[in-house]
Amino acid sequence: VRSAAALAAAEESDVAWWDCHYGVDSDPTGLFCEANVLRYRPRPDVIVRVGSGADVFEVDRVLAAARLGGVQPEVSREDEVDDEAFAALLPGYRFGRIRYVGDGGVSDIVRRAAIAAEVDLVDAPVTASGRLELRWYLREQAISQTLHRFGNLVGVAS
After folding, report:
1. C-beta separation of 97 from 73 below 8 A
2. What secondary structure does DSSP assign to the chain, as a single string?
3. 86 vs 146: which has the higher pLDDT
4. Suppose 77 and one of 30, 39, 50, 99 were both cysteines; which one would form an S-S bond, judging by CB atoms 3.0 to 4.6 Å apart?
């Protein structure tokens, strides 16, 4: 079990990465004739599946990262909802994401059900890095906007 100081440090990492990367729109192309804005938006339908062996730090960690990203995930605990019942719910979360937390690993029942329902299953280790952990709760979006009309730049005097 890790400390409150470790959780605070992880949350600081989240804020730093949110402020410089995930929470700001950017145009990495820098084209003068077209805007290509890259931004991150909250993922809908995120489920945090708390498995056996999950420690409180890991659960608090993933919930803090999700909240910063604007996500209110549903929390499902293995000791309250067994794998068969959980797997039966997954077709209602098509294109959603499960963030698994725990030492036991994801059961084959849940893994197969997630694949069949086209639900993304993330069972990577929980990390204190904001750069790595925040990405599970966001989706990347690219927006292109033409800044010219018939070869003439819009808003530029001739």
Report:
1. no
2. ---HHHHHHHHHHHHHHIIIIITS-B-SS--SSEEEEEEEEEPSSEEEEE-TT--HHHHHHHHHHHHHTT---EEEETTTS-HHHHHHHGGGGTT-EEEEESSS---HHHHHHHHHHT-EEE-PPP-S-HHHHGGGGEEEEEEEEE-EETTEETT---
3. 86
4. 50
- Domains of the chain, by residue range, sit at 4-153
Q: Which of 32-36, 74-78, 118-122 has the lowest mean pLDDT?
A: 32-36
**CA–CA dist 60, 7 (Å, integer):** 8
pLDDT digits (tens, 9 = 90+) for 80-139: 999 999 999 999 988 899 999 998 899 999 999 999 999 999 999 999 999 999 999 999
Name the residue with tokens 């018939």. 150
- The domain defined by 4-153 folds into Aldehyde Dehydrogenase; Chain A, domain 1 (3.40.605)
C-beta separation of 99 from 138 below 8 A = no
Which residue type is seen at 70? G
> In the numeric block, which tokens belong to residue 129?
């890095």
